[in-house]
Specification:
The structure is a single chain. With about 240 residues, the protein is an alpha/beta fold. The chain has two domains: about 1-165, Peptidoglycan recognition protein-like (Lysozyme-like); about 180-230, no CATH class. Helices cover about 30% and strands about 15% of the residues. The protein has eight helices and nine strands. A hairpin with a 4-residue loop joins strand 1 and strand 2. Helix 6 runs parallel beside helix 8 (about 215-230). The two termini are about 35 Å apart.
């Protein structure tokens, strides 16, 4: 365990390695093909680190990013960390086995600190190079577990990640009939629930957090564009 700096993207990451015992081999897949982003909802990054490294808690993540941009490596990327729990994304039911989990120190209500977002971008760049993970496979905990989880929440800057090719964002959106909304959500990856109101809530939290009111043609147009460009189970992997 100890601090170091590594070139992992555009800048040198301030990286500290810890060893969480809460991990094991991946099941049914040889390597990760997704990234799941979380916020910690704890009083400090140190408290979150202690929780993620305690065997009594049976939770972990591969990385934890502090507010000052320090990146804590908790579980080797090749191993299965215990961060996602129950949920689903497309055909993938065992999200832990398919993913790299990144916890970001944040209370869920505050903006994410600039050094923290810079570190996340660089960390994602390195992960992308090492594992060839496509930008549409970078998702939030709320995406794969709607109704159970809401992180990384409405204050998280998904558009910034998309502009840097580390996530996706709707483009060339034309209004669509709202009847298209639920099937397009499934086609994009939201397969954990069929509850349209819940699907709308998680979709807007990520892609349209300023919107209010009932499902409308703009929501349907946005998800139709995403589903057309990024259908989830093209080149599917094992569940």
């Amino acid at each position: 365990m100890g601090p170091c700096t590594v070139q992992d993207g555009l800048r040198q990451l301030k990286l500290t390695t810890y060893n969480s015992p809460n991990c094991g081999p991946r099941r049914g897949v040889a390597q990760p093909d997704m990234v799941v982003l979380h916020y910690t909802a704890m009083k400090s990054a140190a408290a979150a680190r202690d929780t993620l490294c305690s065997p009594a808690n049976e939770v972990s993540a591969h990385y934890l990013i502090a507010e000052d941009g320090e990146v804590m490596s908790l579980v080797p990327e090749a191993l299965r960390a215990w961060h996602a729990g129950a949920g689903r994304w497309g055909a993938v039911a065992d999200v832990n086995s398919h993913s790299i989990g990144i916890e970001i120190a944040n209370d869920g209500l505050s903006p994410f600190a600039a050094p923290q977002m810079d570190a996340l971008v660089d960390l994602l760049q390195g992960i992308k190079v090492r594992w060839d993970i496509r930008p549409e496979r970078v998702i939030g905990h709320s995406d794969m577990a709607p109704g159970r989880k809401i992180d990384p929440g409405g204050r998280f800057d998904w558009r910034r990640l998309a502009l840097m090719s580390h996530a996706v964002w709707p483009e060339d959106v034309a209004p669509q009939d709202t009847a298209f909304f639920a099937p397009r959500m499934r086609a994009f990856g939201y397969t954990a629930t069929d509850d349209v109101d819940l699907l709308l809530s998680v979709f807007r939290m990520r892609f349209r957090p300023w919107a209010t009111g009932p499902l409308d043609e703009v929501d349907a147009g946005m998800i139709s564009d995403l589903a057309r460009r990024f259908p989830v189970d093209v080149n599917p992997t094992s569940t």
